[in-house]
Prior knowledge:
Strand content: 15-25%
InterPro entries: C-N_Hydrolase, C-N_Hydrolase_sf, Nitrilases_CHs
GO molecular function: nitrilase activity
EC number: 3.5.5.1
Number of helices: 9
Largest sheet: 6 strands, mixed
Strand order of the largest sheet: 5-4-3-2-1-11
Number of domains: 1
Helix content: 10-25%
CATH superfamily: Carbon-nitrogen hydrolase
CATH topology: Nitrilase/N-carbamoyl-D-aminoacid amidohydrolase
Organism: Methylorubrum populi (strain ATCC BAA-705 / NCIMB 13946 / BJ001)
CATH architecture: 4-Layer Sandwich
Structural class: alpha/beta
Number of strands: 11
Keywords: Hydrolase
Radius of gyration: 22 Å
Low-confidence stretches: 336-360
Amino acid sequence: MSVPYPKFKAAACHVAPVFLDSAASAEKAVALIGEAARAGAGLVVFPEGYMPGFPLWAALRAPIHNHDLFKRLAAQSVRLDGPEIGLVRDAARRHGVLVSLGFSESTEASVGCLWNANVLIGRDGAILNHHRKLVPTFYEKLIWANGDARGLRVTPTEIGRVGMLICGENTNPLARYALMAQGEQVHISTYPPAWPTRPPGQSAAYDLARAIEIRAGAHAFEAKVFNIVCSAVLDSAARAILCDGDAAIADIVERTPAGVSMVLDPTGAHLVAPHQGDETIVYAEIDVAACVEPKQFHDVVGYYNRFDIFRLTVDRAPREPISFEAAVRPAGPAAEGEGAEGFGLDAAAHRSEPPHRASH
């Protein structure tokens, strides 16, 4: 049986969300999916935290000043089965494209526990993969909880085997190798609009674009994959909310280098010019067959490794806040006929029920 090597057009939506408004951001995503599909795209990618926007305030002020913004983010964070992602799924189905979407995820178990998440949606609108960022980076820990490895997987699709990591996860060699070892061919990397560190003048500013270039090139070259990088844009509406009239913070935001979107081939070379700045959609033609020849040089999940020396084990067990077990009844005649009613509960409530879990 011959191995298929698909060809397709990728679209990285280098855009801003409607800041802290998930419903409006979903509507904007639907419009962008339609635009990309009409341009011939088979895969449409949105940035990290696109819905409802990246919480950049955690870098700009002390936590004590950010409670109101966190409450707004929590209120606008969405669930996998919610109406906002439902709109995006409908658009993917209507246009027959795959969609990768970054979002802040909430849970019915808590009003304050959030995750930095990403979802891969199929051409039929189905959820193909749901990944939560394993470790929030630096000041993101003030916003998001640790994820687990349930979504650390590569998904077979019509455009090839697709994997995805969020921002700083692309610096984690074990997370990247976990995807390489599952036969990844197309990698999705998502990023925020900027990454403030110190006020300009105190030290060299962290150059997000340069950091992205290094990480994206490393994974494309080491994994021999196409790497689709999508960064967000910080628009004037978001700037106004973040700065809130504070000139010093406005100066930091203004001087902080912005993120960049790009598409790299399996040698680490640019397929199209990278884009940094105003909103646009970055398109690139991809031929998955180009992954094959570079594997002759370095195949770190094949002959170019020592599996007798190195081993990697990944625990994909979901980390849920609680699990329930059925009550253990005493043995003997006294237990006969004693059902859930004996505890003042109906039978359905007495049965062991797993906590709510989004389907994958």
